[in-house]
Design brief:
With 151 residues, this protein is mainly alpha-helical. It has helices spanning 2-27, 53-62, 67-85, 93-109. The chain contains four helices and no strands.
């Protein structure tokens, strides 16, 4: 009886493997193809895109680069690839630039919080829409929440 059961499981596995291979190798390519994501340019203007967050934060604190320039680099990259990725469903680009200007002003005036309190000061980041960000959609990936906006 157990031998028959294991043969059935093995047959089911083989059939699943066959049909999934057929689907993904033969039928999937006929679906609409997404555009390939452009590689990050090698110029010095957007080198922060290749750096870790702590390295970017260090460059901003040392005055090697302005927070506004970093934010603009990230915005350009998002705009270049989001058509293919569809990862950014809502943006706060204007707010991000305004915040970056505040960070630059704090650093220029010498009133920026110490690195221990704000280690990533000036580094842009994204937040999933499952978290509440005032004025942004908060669907949490659920269709029934498509009209929910965080307060």
């Amino acid at each position: 009886m157990m031998k028959f059961f294991f043969r059935c499981v093995g047959l089911a596995r083989q059939l699943t493997s066959f049909f999934s291979t057929f689907f993904f190798h033969f039928l999937w390519p006929f679906k609409e193809r997404r555009r390939a994501v452009k590689p990050i340019a090698g110029d010095d203007v957007d080198q922060e895109l290749r750096m870790s967050a702590t390295a970017v934060a260090g460059r901003i604190r040392r005055g090697e680069v302005k927070a506004v320039d970093v934010v603009n680099s990230y915005i350009r990259r998002i705009q270049a690839v989001n058509g293919s990725l569809n990862a950014m469903v809502f943006d706060f680009f204007n707010d991000a630039i305004a915040e970056a200007r505040k960070v630059d002003a704090l650093l220029e005036s010498g009133t920026a919080p110490p690195i221990e309190k704000a280690p990533l000061l000036g580094v842009p980041f994204t937040v999933k829409e499952s978290f509440a960000v005032q004025g942004a959609p908060q669907t949490s990936g659920l269709v029934r929440r498509r009209n929910v906006v965080a307060e």
